[in-house]
Amino acid sequence: MASTTAFKDRNLIAVIGDEDSITGLLLAGIGHINEHQRKNFLVVDSKTQISTIEAAFQEFTQRKDTAIVLINQHIAEKIRPTVDRYQEAFPTLLEIPSKDHPYDPSKDSVLKRVQKLFGE
């Protein structure tokens, strides 16, 4: 019972993605601004600095109200060492495709860990 109470308040999805991905997810209702005026999403474009992406990743993975962090795979590639170091179960990290960048399973850090567990 203690393990379920520790995660019961995790009810948000955070997103780091391109404009199209963020727009679609916001239209689906994932947008949230907390009491400190912090958003649960970051729109990344060609002008967004790597440090900004990494800071958003760190913030989203440390929030206690976030259950899932979605990140476009091509953006995850920009901060791959940081993404690969992330080992926590909550919030769960999922790499997703974007309109212009198809999903490549060979680059997915979670899939690599699963394959390693099964000896593949």
Q: Give the overall silhouette.
A: globular
Q: State the strand order across the main sheet.
A: 2-1-3-4
Helix content: 25-40%
For the sheet with most strands, the description reads:
4 strands, parallel
Tell me the series of helices and strands, N- to C-terminal.
HEHEHEHHEH
Termini distance?
A: 34 Å
How many β-strand runs? 4
Strand-residue proportion: 15-25%
Q: CATH topology, anyone?
A: Rossmann fold
Gyration radius from CA atoms, angstroms: 15 Å
Task: Name its key features.
transport; four-stranded parallel sheet; about 120 residues; proton-transporting ATPase activity, rotational mechanism; about 40% helix; single chain; globular; alpha/beta; 4 strands; membrane; V-type proton ATPase subunit F; Rossmann fold
Topology:
Layout: H1 2-7, E1 12-17, H2 19-27, E2 41-43, H3 50-62, E3 66-72, H4 73-76, H5 80-85, E4 92-96, H6 109-117
Parallel strand pairs: 1-2, 1-3, 3-4
Overview of the structural elements:
- The chain is globular, with a radius of gyration of 15 Å.
- It contains 6 helices and 4 strands; from the N terminus they run αβαβαβααβα.
- The protein has a 4-stranded parallel beta sheet, with helices on both faces.
- Helix 2 (19-27) links the parallel strand 1 (12-17) and strand 2 (41-43).
- The protein has helices at 2-7, 19-27, 50-62, 73-76, 80-85, 109-117; strands spanning 12-17, 41-43, 66-72, 92-96.
- The chain has 120 residues and is α/β, with parallel strands linked by helices.
- The chain has one domain (2-117): 3-Layer(aba) Sandwich (Rossmann fold).
- The N and C termini lie far apart (34 Å).
